[in-house]
């Protein structure tokens, strides 16, 4: 009942789903040791994330020199497995995973190999037989290399869109073939894993949804009459489509409609300029990142969530809006149609500002009691299908099977492995 979790940067404000999953496993009796390459402490505003940061072992905090000093003696006791992992790292680096192909990719993967050696050493020290990585990018690479060096089991969860944007560059098929099992957070995500894996590996591909903690969402706040209020939540980055949303707000031309945009990122200055140029400064509010309580408060004051993304996995913000009893206007991409139906919101073509503007107008024309019924249906669906304790139990069953098949942690050896 012990395992390691590995993430590149953890925790992050946009990745509370990982924290919820870990906590659910711990409620079931699992002992989970958190590894991350980096901390992003200065960006954390939620007390639960800050507490999680203190519980996480950040490998690069010690610096590469000290990391190497700790890991290399362990590697020296396992020369054969270390050499196999090194060849694997250089092979992945040649494809460009995590960086440019060629020399740059290989150098980056030498660092991944060293990180994998340190993870393997710590897993042996802490008696952790299995490593689970979140995201199929560099964290899964490090987990794969650690498993090869240390004779450990490993698995990983893919979220999208990054893994599916460059599957060959991220050696996705190689990781699937070597992992005990691989997880997608939606049926759409599993279909993408099927595309990049051999048919023989398909039985090891599983769907485990991200989930919510239902007890954090009491009975929804009743929707108020009067001017409509939309909320959007996410990183202010290109893939989230927020510039398109501002364009759609201008096209919708609804003077009583207000939008609150929760999040932060590189696009904030450009968005602020776009909002001012469109004359929307009185109707659009940018809040920056808020803690979970702040997000729930804004959802409670809103009539619906809007998600204009160009690329997604299975959006947690949609689940949280549904749990709060709010319908959703969203791009019809990736796993989103697995959440949003005609009874719980509006799906629009991604990248189409006019279609998004029309969906916003349609939303604004719906009576409040109909919006409330849509929100009630959405809440019932998400509480049934995305309870984190249920989803974590599914994941735990795969961990048990993998650890049982591998026989647990191998004995440390003094000779070649």
Main attributes of the structure:
417 residues, Rossmann fold, 2 domains, 7-stranded parallel beta sheet, 6-stranded parallel beta sheet, 16 helices, 13 strands, 47% helix, EC 2.4.-.-, glycosyltransferase activity, Glycosyltransferase_grp1
Topology:
Layout (H helix, E strand, L loop, with lengths): L1 E8 L6 H12 L3 E8 L8 H8 L1 E3 L5 H13 L2 H17 L7 H24 L3 E5 L3 H13 L2 E6 L3 H4 L6 H7 L2 E4 L2 H9 L9 E3 L21 E5 L8 H11 L5 E5 L5 H10 L6 E5 L3 H10 L2 E4 L8 H8 L4 E4 L13 E4 L4 H13 L2 H18 L2 H19 L11
Parallel strand pairs: 1-2, 1-4, 2-3, 4-5, 5-6, 6-7, 8-9, 8-11, 9-10, 11-12, 12-13
Low-confidence stretches: 97-102
Q: Which class do the helix and strand fractions yield? A: alpha/beta
What CATH architecture label of the largest domain applies?
A: 3-Layer(aba) Sandwich
Rg computed from alpha carbons, rounded to a whole number of angstroms: 23 Å
CATH topology of the largest domain: Rossmann fold
Largest sheet: 7 strands, parallel
N-to-C CA distance: 25 Å
Level-1 CATH class name of the largest domain = Alpha Beta
How many structurally independent domains?
A: 2
Count of β-strands: 13
Which percent range describes the beta-strand content? Answer: 15-25%
Globally, the shape reads elongated
Strand order within the widest sheet? Answer: 3-2-1-4-5-6-7
Mean pLDDT level: 93
Residues in helices, as a percent range: 40-55%
Q: What is the CATH superfamily of the largest domain?
A: Glycogen Phosphorylase B
Enumerate how many helices there are, as a single number: 16
What string, H for helix and E for strand, traces the elements in order? EHEHEHHHEHEHHEHEEHEHEHEHEEHHH
EC number: 2.4.-.-
InterPro entries: Glycosyltransferase_grp1
Protein name: Teichuronic acid biosynthesis glycosyltransferase TuaC
Enzyme class: transferase
């Amino acid at each position: 009942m012990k395992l390691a979790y590995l993430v590149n940067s953890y925790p992050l404000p946009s990745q509370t789903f990982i924290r919820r999953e870990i906590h659910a496993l711990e409620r079931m009796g699992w002992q989970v040791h958190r590894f991350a390459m980096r901390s992003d402490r200065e960006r954390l505003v939620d007390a639960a994330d800050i507490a999680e940061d203190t519980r996480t072992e950040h490998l690069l905090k010690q610096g590469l020199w000290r990391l190497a000093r700790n890991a290399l003696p362990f590697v020296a006791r396992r020369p054969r497995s270390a050499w196999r992992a090194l060849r694997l790292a250089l092979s992945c680096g040649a494809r460009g995973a995590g960086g440019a192909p060629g020399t740059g990719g290989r150098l980056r993967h030498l660092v991944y190999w060293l990180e994998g050696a340190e993870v393997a050493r710590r897993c042996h020290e802490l008696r952790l037989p299995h490593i689970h990585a979140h995201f199929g990018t560099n964290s899964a690479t490090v987990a794969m290399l650690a498993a090869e060096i240390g004779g450990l089991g490993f698995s990983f969860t893919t979220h999208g869109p990054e893994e599916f944007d460059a599957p060959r560059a991220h050696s996705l098929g190689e990781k699937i073939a070597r992992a005990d099992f691989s997880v997608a957070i939606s049926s759409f995500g599993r279909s993408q894993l099927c595309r990049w894996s051999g048919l023989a590996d398909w039985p090891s591909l599983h769907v485990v949804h991200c989930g919510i903690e239902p007890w954090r969402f009491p009975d929804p706040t009743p929707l108020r009459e009067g001017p409509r209020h939309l909320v959007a939540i996410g990183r202010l980055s290109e893939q989230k489509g927020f510039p398109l949303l501002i364009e759609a707000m201008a096209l919708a031309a609804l003077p009583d409609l207000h939008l609150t945009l929760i999040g932060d990122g590189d696009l904030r200055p450009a968005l602020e300029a776009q909002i001012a140029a469109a004359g929307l400064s009185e109707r659009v509010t940018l809040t920056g990142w808020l803690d979970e309580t702040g997000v729930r408060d804004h959802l409670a004051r809103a009539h619906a969530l809007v998600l204009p993304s160009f690329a997604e996995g299975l959006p947690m913000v949609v689940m949280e809006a549904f749990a709060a009893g709010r319908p959703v206007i969203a791009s019809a991409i990736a796993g989103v149609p697995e959440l949003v139906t005609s009874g719980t919101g509006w799906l629009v073509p991604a990248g189409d500002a006019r279609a998004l503007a029309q969906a916003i107008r349609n939303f604004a024309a719906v009576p409040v009691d109909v919006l409330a019924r849509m929100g009630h249906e959405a809440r019932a669906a998400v509480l049934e299908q995305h309870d984190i304790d249920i989803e974590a139990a599914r994941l735990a069953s795969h961990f048990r099977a993998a650890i049982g098949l591998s026989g647990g942690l191998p004995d440390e050896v003094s000779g070649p492995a």
